[in-house]
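Appendix B. Chain record.
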Amino acid sequence: MCYSIVVPSRVVRARLDDASESALSVLMREGRNESDAVRTALVEAGRRRAQRSALAAEVSRLAADQHDTSERKSVLADMGSIGADWPE
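Structure tokens predicted for this chain:
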């Protein structure tokens, strides 16, 4: 017989302000306990930050790409030439 015990890798203590207390309550109403709610929030926030960082890096890469910039300007010029004038 083999028993596996999962031990948390780290314990974090935090004082919650009103906004974080409210957010914790939302997660707990989904049936999570405090620890699970905090872990879920941290994972979700980390993923969002990583996605934003990846998007910012892609924007920087495209902004530095001269070929992409000239293509973008060409497309915008074409679209501007076929678009109707705005009424005054």
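Further analysis of this model is presented in Appendix C.
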